[in-house]
Write a structure and sequence with these properties.
Length: 156
Amino acid sequence: MKSYQTNNPAATQALAKQLAQLAYPGLVVTLQGDLGAGKTTFTQGLARALDITSRVKSPTFNILNTYEEGRIPLYHFDAYRLEFAGAEDQGFEDYLGTDGVTLIEWPQYMADLLPNDRLEMTFTRMGTGESDRQITVQGLGQAQAVEEALTDGSGK
Ligand code: ADP
Ligand code: MG
């Protein structure tokens, strides 16, 4: 597990840029954290670093937005609305661990679909500042190498 502290959106996006440089087709990244924690901000930074020029916003209503114009396809899920609906039988598997990098907000609502090889990230408001965030990264299976390649965080 690596842990980072950021105190502005740009610092969170700098971490996203690092991840974009390590991303490969098939990488799945789960983004956990409360509303406003910074999950979409992180995704926007990653998209930009993949040379995606479209405006990335949270796909709350359609669950999944796809961006094909960058270096690698980006599949961006926001599973929040699946809390009661469930994630089965909607073809989401086609976007997990295939030809793109997949980022998933609210992954707990599609837990049954998550591959074992994945990078788990958590975003937490912390400290006294309005903009202070703790971000943790843990690689599982093949994604362990991605965690290891990231710069060392604060070590906590
Ligand atoms: P989420 O997708 O987790 O609901 P968003 O990324 O949509 O969160 O919103 C995060 C908000 O917090 C944005 O308005 C962003 O500018 C702000 N913010 C302040 N500090 C940070 C930080 N350190 N990292 C990320 N976002 C931050
Ligand atoms: Mg969001």
